[in-house]
Specification:
- With about 200 residues, the protein is of the alpha/beta class.
- It has one domain: 3-Layer(aba) Sandwich (Rossmann fold), CATH 3.40.50.
- Helices cover about 35% and strands about 20% of the residues.
- It has 6 helices and 7 strands, in the order βαβαβαβαβαββα.
- A 7-stranded mixed sheet has the order 3-2-1-4-5-6-7, with helices on both faces.
- The chain is globular, with a radius of gyration of 16 Å.
- About 40% of the residues are buried.
- Bound molecules: glycinamide ribonucleotide.
Length: about 200
């Protein structure tokens, strides 16, 4: 079976990367991970990738000339691996048109809230869960969406909802949301990969 070639971009723990690695372990899953890129040398996700025998690259944003220089380095590496679909998974950099235009419609992200609530620049990780609690929301969740230059505003592929408990803090809520991301991301990648394979575009 033809399988779509994924790249996963990370900055930290990589638990969503792990969920994708586990999904790709199934020979019937329509995608496989060709490369993992981290902008941080100490990202735990790099070890997860190495343990799974996946090629890794560290591209440190501080060693490049601004956001566009960094994005050009990412694009060059991704093109050298001939990837079909790019998954941002806890990748804490905002991408410029240099990157987004190179892979139009083929970049996905996971965000830990029900977008459009609690998205946009500065809304990431624990900041998102703290904002959900501060707003008194009774439900939250995660969103897998397309990446466009307008941060967190790309088309939604799928969302999963969780209850916010009265005694939740950002950490307890984050844990409940993360468990749903681990289900949602492989589902969304399956949908995208099947579309690419059926349109014979991969
Ligand atoms: C995930 O909860 C992801 O939604 C969030 O970072 C976490 C990464 O976890 N991303 C953002 O907030 C982006 N705006 P992981 O490294 O264990 O996959």
């Amino acid at each position: 079976m033809n399988r779509v070639k994924l790249a996963v971009l990370i900055s930290g723990d990589g638990s969503n990367l792990q969920a994708l690695i586990d999904a790709c372990d199934d020979a019937d899953y329509p995608a496989q991970i060709a490369v993992v890129i981290s902008n941080k040398a100490d990202a735990r996700g790099l070890k997860r990738a190495q343990d799974a025998g996946i090629a890794t690259h560290i591209i440190n944003h501080r060693e490049h000339d601004g956001r566009e220089g960094f994005d050009r380095a990412l694009v060059d590496t991704l093109q050298s691996h001939h990837v079909d679909l790019i998954c941002l998974a806890g990748f804490m950099r905002i991408l410029t048109p240099v990157f987004i235009d190179a892979f139009q419609g083929r970049i996905l992200n996971t965000h830990p809230s029900l977008l459009p609530r609690h998205g946009g620049e500065g809304m990431y990780g624990m900041h998102v869960h703290a904002a959900v609690i501060a707003a008194g929301d009774t439900v939250s969740g995660c969103t897998i969406h397309h990446v466009i230059t307008d941060v967190d505003r790309g088309a939604v592929i799928l969302q999963k909802q969780v209850d916010v408990h009265a005694d939740d803090n950002a950490e307890t809520l984050a844990k409940r949301v993360l468990a749903q991301e681990h289900i949602a991301y492989p589902e969304a990648v399956r949908i995208m990969a099947q579309n690419l394979l059926y349109s014979d575009d991969a």
